[in-house]
Specification:
Elements: E1 4-7, H1 9-14, E2 26-30, H2 31-40, H3 46-62, E3 71-72, E4 78-82, H4 89-92, H5 100-116, E5 124-127, H6 131-139, E6 144-145, E7 162-167, H7 169-178, E8 181-182, E9 197-202, E10 209-214, E11 220-223, H8 239-248, E12 255-260, H9 266-280, E13 286-291, H10 307-326, H11 333-341, E14 344-348, E15 360-364, H12 372-379, E16 387-392, H13 408-416, E17 422-427, H14 434-442
Parallel strand pairs: 1-2, 1-5, 2-4, 5-6, 7-9, 12-16, 12-17, 13-14, 13-15, 15-16
Antiparallel strand pairs: 3-4, 8-11, 9-10, 10-11
Length: 443
């Protein structure tokens, strides 16, 4: 049965190609949505880019006919711009103030009433990323749903980078004697990804176990190459941190993703591994550390000074970790050290577009605040001989149009999990402090 979907502005700003995601149903865009998109088109960020993209798509579709009368889409559906949100009498009985959101809902209500007069009414559904719009739509008796087309996976199904297999104790004994296992011995009923870590446990119930890593071709299970020695003063405190260092220091893995709650050591481990590779091993020419400029809470506004002075408040978490690793004693020492080395660059992601970055160890912190398009832009900048590490917590999203399932970091984790050039690990145990771990768990 066909449906009528009334699309909120935030859906189009989140995914400008969403117009083609509703199959052969009818898409209705309230005229106020065009006004809201117009107000965003001059922004220099991802939202502005998406607003301009939507405008171009609608302008192209306009060549096929009048948008207010409806036009046919390639996928069999139809699209039209609806002008009747000014009739807000039905809305005023529940929501007296006529905001832009309420005008969008007024379109849905008027369409619903019109359809109910027909012998076979078509269901009207509101699609919005805004939770309150969906709630108000439900109060008005109009079904509402989130835009889920670009979601990667349910939280319970997210790839962790590590799995536990219960095997016969002879399999574990064979691994310790041969220092290798053929994949056929353990994966008869399990799909294991390249570079995925596997904890082998005795199915008979003894304490016998082994920690192994899948080869890039998925043909065998190998031992971890690293001992538990400290790297730049940082030693792994749990199994997941040891796994993280294993893939961070593996030069054959150019893409590493790390997720975890606050205090699990993601950024610190990435920086320690990078400093070892850049300063000690000279494997890479430079260390580039970047993070998106997305505020948590109220924006701090424009800042005085040169570029580095403007960026310092946004980059302070990175400087805090560098001060810990370099064991600085006085304020300002870290700037002198970085200036003396010349091989460490702390940058905002704003300046990465158009660059080609060869021979560098690249760390992108807070990558969960990046969209799919932005993450593609960043990874496609990586040149020959470079390694990129994406770090973040998908549960801490500050971007207004992203969530734990649609952000760029989760997108990369799921899309690259079967590729031999990438590896992922989810850090679960907090090591910052007992208080930080408790806060991450219960708050």
């Amino acid at each position: 049965m066909k449906k009528i979907y009334v699309i909120d502005t935030n859906v189009l700003l989140h995914d400008p190609n969403s117009l083609y995601s509703f199959e052969d149903n009818e898409i209705v865009i309230p005229s106020i949505v065009l006004e809201e998109i117009d107000s965003k088109k001059r922004l220099a960020d991802e939202i502005g880019r998406n607003a301009r993209h939507v405008a171009r798509v609608l302008d192209m579709l306009r060549e096929q006919g009048r948008l207010n009368e409806g036009i046919q889409l390639e996928n069999g559906g139809t699209l039209r711009v609806e002008l009747n949100q000014r009739d807000t009498d039905a809305m005023r009985t529940m929501f007296n103030e006529i905001t832009n959101d309420n005008r969008i809902l007024a379109v849905a209500v008027n369409l619903h009433f019109a359809e109910q007069q027909k012998e076979e009414p078509t269901p009207v559904i509101v699609v919005s990323k805004d939770t309150l719009v969906r709630i108000k739509s439900d109060v008005l008796g109009i079904p509402a749903q989130d835009y889920l087309t670009d979601r990667i996976a349910d939280w319970s199904d997210m790839y962790l980078g590590c799995t536990t297999l219960h095997v016969h104790p002879s399999v574990i004994d064979h691994f310790y004697s041969q220092r290798m296992l053929d994949m056929s011995e353990v994966s008869k009923h399990h799909h294991i990804n390249p570079h995925e870590f596997v904890i082998l446990k005795d199915e008979m119930g003894s304490s016998k176990s082994a920690l192994v890593k899948t080869s890039s071709d998925r043909k065998r299970l190998e031992p971890l190459h690293l001992s538990n020695e400290a790297i730049w003063g940082i030693a792994a405190r749990n199994a997941q941190q040891r796994m993280a260092l294993e893939i961070l220091l593996n030069d054959e893995i150019p893409l590493v993703t790390m997720t975890g709650k606050a205090g699990t050591g993601k950024t610190l481990l990435a920086l320690a591994a990078a400093l070892m590779k850049v300063e000690d091993d000279r494997k890479y020419k430079k260390l580039l550390i970047a993070r998106p400029v997305v505020p948590m809470g109220k924006d701090i506004g424009y800042l005085p000074g040169e570029k580095d002075e403007k960026l310092r408040p946004w980059m302070q978490p990175i400087y805090d970790n560098l001060e810990f690793l370099f064991n600085t004693k006085k304020p300002g020492d870290i700037e002198k050290i970085l200036a003396g080395l010349g091989s460490i660059q702390v940058e905002a992601l704003t300046y990465i577009r158009g660059r080609s970055i060869p021979g560098q160890f690249i760390i992108i912190d807070e990558a969960q605040n990046l969209s799919k398009h932005e993450i593609k832009t960043i990874i496609s900048r990586v040149g020959e001989g470079s390694k990129i590490v994406l770090v973040g917590d998908p549960e801490q999203i500050d971007h207004p149009y992203l969530d734990a399932f649609s952000n760029g970091l989760s997108y990369v984790v799921e899309k690259f999990k079967g590729e031999g050039l990438s590896a992922h690990i989810t850090l679960e145990k907090g090591e910052r402090s007992a208080l930080a771990q408790l806060a991450a768990d219960i708050l």
